[in-house]
Amino acid sequence: MAEIIARNEQLVVPTARLRTTCDAIATRRAEVADVAHVGQRRAVESARFGIGVEREGFNLFVMGPPGSHRHALVTELAEARAARKPSPEDWCYANNFANPERPRALRLPAGRGAAFREDMHALIDEIRIAIPAAFEEEDYRNQLKALESELHEEIEQQWEDIRRKAAKDDIAVLQTPSGYVLAPLRDGKVIDDKDFKELPDDERKSIEATIDKLGEELQARIESLPKLRKQQHERVRALDREVTAHAVTVLIQELAAKYADVPDVAHYLEEAREDIIEHAQEFRQTDEPALPFLRNDIPSLLMSYEINLVVGNEPDRPAPVIYETNPSYPNLVGKVEHRAEMGALLTDFRMVRGGALLHANGGYLVLDAHRVLGRPFAWEALKQALFTKEVRIESPADTLGFATTTTLKPEPIPLDVKIILIGERWLYYLLSLYDKEFGSLFKVAVDLDDDVERTGDSVAAYAKMIGNRVRSHELLPFDEAAVRRVIEQRARQADDSERLSMNMQSLDDLLVEAEYWARQHDANSVGVDDVVEAIRRKKERLGRIEKRIVDAIERDTLLIDTSGECVGQINGLSVIDLGDHRFGHPVRITATTRIGTGDVVDIEREVELGGAIHSKGVMILSSALSSRYAPDTPLSLHGSIVFEQSYGGVDGDSASVAELCALLSSISKLPIRQNVACTGSINQLGRVQAVGGVNEKIEGFYEICKARGLDGTHGVVIPKDNVKHLMLREDVVDAVDKGRFAVWAVETIDEAVETLTGTRADVVSGKVEEQLVEYARQRKRFAEGTSNGASNNE
Amino acid sequence: MSDADTIRRILLAVTETSPVETLWQSLLDAVENSRAEVVTVFVRDEHWRRAASLPFTREISRLSGLQAEFTHRRARQVSLATAVRVQQRLEHLASKTRLKLEFEVVSEQEGAELARRERHILLVR
Q1: Do B56 and A212 touch (CB under 8 A)?
Q2: Which residues in chain B are closer than 8 Å to A219, comparing Cβ atoms?
């Protein structure tokens, strides 16, 4: 017994290992970069590489859990790089005079887009005055009058010719309201049918022939009138063009000289000049709307010379770094807006709106991957833009070919943007696996660590980072002890005494909450007690379910023994994760055994409450059982294991050590201590392996034992490999320090069994082997008996 | 006895080619200081009827140059339209004065008969 106690003592985890405190912070001066990106060296290097490579497809996918400082990290690195890049060009949409449904994209140097828009606005105002004024000129009026007279004279001349010819042959040209009638005259009067018949045949025929001929000539003259009027119209138009050209060219020349270095604008201005001249007549009309209820701020013709500044940048500013929080299709690509007028939806080039891709053109666009994937058509549109290296502002219905109405198809704008997608790891791997285009578009993976190694240097940098965040959030200053306590809590949140969590969201929450409690007692700074209070209060706020479970155990609704011994019954440990809060609690595991055919039944699996990992754990322990304790004998046992009073799903293999111990106890009839709980997974060779949530599990059992009264016999058996993860609460450590609670770290199933049964492992093994041999013998006897019985029956 | 005392009716006879405005002014001059009644008569021109009676007469459209048969019906329409146009013109002129206008349409023959029968009229034509 003394031997066992001595061995048990060796397994006890020293108090110092139960919680690795942060006793001092190195005073070295951490570099700024180190402070900003503590422990993310690999990720920072990847991000710098991805942001720096100006090649196709080298877009970034930043992986890491929410709250891991992902946005801040990439935004900071992108902004640093963007500061060295020139401000990108401006983009405008202007009317396409040849094809208004396809607005023209104009590229201008940064800052000149807005100026050009204003210049065109001023030009329109000037043209509105200059053109009508030109048509009011005396010279123009005289020329127009001359043209009109020319036509009038020409027409009159033609009539005169006809009348003269008719009069010469005694034919009257009578005018009806809608035409002309040719009739023979005698003594100045039209003759009637009676008089006509009295004329000699020759004369009659001659009159008829003359009237026919004159009629044909009259008809030909009438038919030629539209042509004459058309010629006249063309001459007037030519005159108008000449007048307009003179007025407009003078105005546009100045603008053309200003933008001579911008080819797109120079070309556009020439087209605009031609169009203005073409529509000279319309500039002479009033600004009144066609109908009084129609909106007519300025005539529609003038609108067509406006400029739609889609992307306007300021010169001498860095390239843009844009984070689009709602990457819907229109927000990403852009859209063509419409206005309702008289029940119809109208649009034009002025209603084309750019999206985030255009606004980030020449720079960096940060997007949340799950949001892009969750918005209809956004992911496909993003890939399309990256593949074609241009942005086409179309409605999704157009893209899919569903739209049947005429709409705008603005000219595409060349795209040169670096996309930084931010998402969780599973999303990256899913996209890599299922989207064949993903790999060629997002070649740079930036994998942010969830935690950082806890070293002197990293602690110093971490402390500096805490200071920076305190300042950036404008919190009360934290004293050094408070910072050290925060760092300890960060190790606890990392589930590892040798690492620090990099979840910045939870860090900020802790800092803000600690500061709140400091302010409650009017402190000028945040002390360690405030940090402890913040941790305690948060646990309390989220602890309703935990409290209910503890209450149920204390009231013996959930049956957990914390004293005495029992065969085939053990206290396992379970963890419940509620997202923001995680806690452990003991759970009773029982095992029963009898003669059988070598199968160990996992009741949880049988009723489909056990997960795959749990089933795997039970199969492994079954294998360990047979290989360790019945290597030369057929395993002739039937065992069953169950989590008592468990009504939900069970998963994980962290109870496999406890389950095996319960089985061994059942086989050997050696009782297990109920004042000890056990966690750990086992492999086929009997090695105890690390599990998750070890701190919560220990604290969960401690709570129950404490409630029932700690007597120095209580404790928890954990895998030795989990010792480095221990960051137990101060009160648990204190209890251990005072000898009222213990934590044993075991490496093998023998160490666990010895601690749990208080019996030497070889003795337990001997009893188990003996019982398994007995089961085998009984089974053989049973089989032979059955066989003999069968023979006798024959 | 002056003319103004003896003239009881003033007859304004116009044809489709009469200078209506000039004749109207002459009428206004004559009616001044007189209480004579004013009667306007449109003397229908017979040349439309005569032209329509000829088998070969065509009306040539001013708009298209197309030719159509010029029938008696069409002649009546043209004559009536001309009379309406003249009447409207005269009414317009009369509206600028206090004169009350009577308008009649007569044939050439009736017009000549009217001028011969009435002794106390001033014929403006």
Answers
A1: yes
A2: 60, 65-67
CB A48 within 8 A of CB A41: no
Q: Are residues A99 and A228 in the same domain?
A: yes
Nearest by CB: A222 against B55, B65, B78? B65
Range of the domain at A470: 2-39+449-541
Would you call A59 helix, strand, or coil by DSSP?
coil
Q: What is the number of structural domains in chain A?
A: 4
- Same-domain check for residues A506 and A492: yes
Contact A288, A167 (CB under 8 A): no
Q: Is residue A133 domain-shared with residue A259, that is, in the same domain? A: yes
Same domain for A574 and A507: no
- Gap between the terminal Cα atoms of chain B: 24
For chain A, 794 residues long, the average pLDDT of each consecutive 10-residue run is 79 93 73 60 90 92 82 90 92 94 94 94 87 86 90 86 89 88 88 88 91 90 86 88 86 90 94 87 64 55 89 91 95 90 84 95 95 94 95 81 75 96 94 94 91 88 90 94 94 93 90 96 95 94 91 91 94 89 93 88 79 84 84 85 84 90 94 95 92 95 93 94 95 94 95 93 92 88 71 44
Say whether both A494 and A600 belong to one domain.
no
- Among chain B residues, CA nearest to A159: B62
**Inter-chain contacts counted by CB atoms under 8 A, chains A and B:** 81
Least Cα separation, residue B83 to chain A (angstroms): 12
- Give dist(CA A720, CA A9) in Å, integer: 14
Q: Which of A181, A222, A223 sits opposite B51 (nearest CB)?
A: A181
DSSP for A622-644, written as a single string: HHHHHHHH-TTS---EEEEEEET
Here the ipTM equals: 0.83
**A interface test, pick of B57, B71, B77 with most A CB neighbours within 10 Å:** B57
| Domains annotated on chain B, with CATH | 3-124 (3.40.50)
- Whether A492 contacts A536, CB under 8 Å: no
3-state secondary structure of A61: strand
Q: Is the residue at A561 inside a domain?
A: yes
In-domain check, residue A595: yes
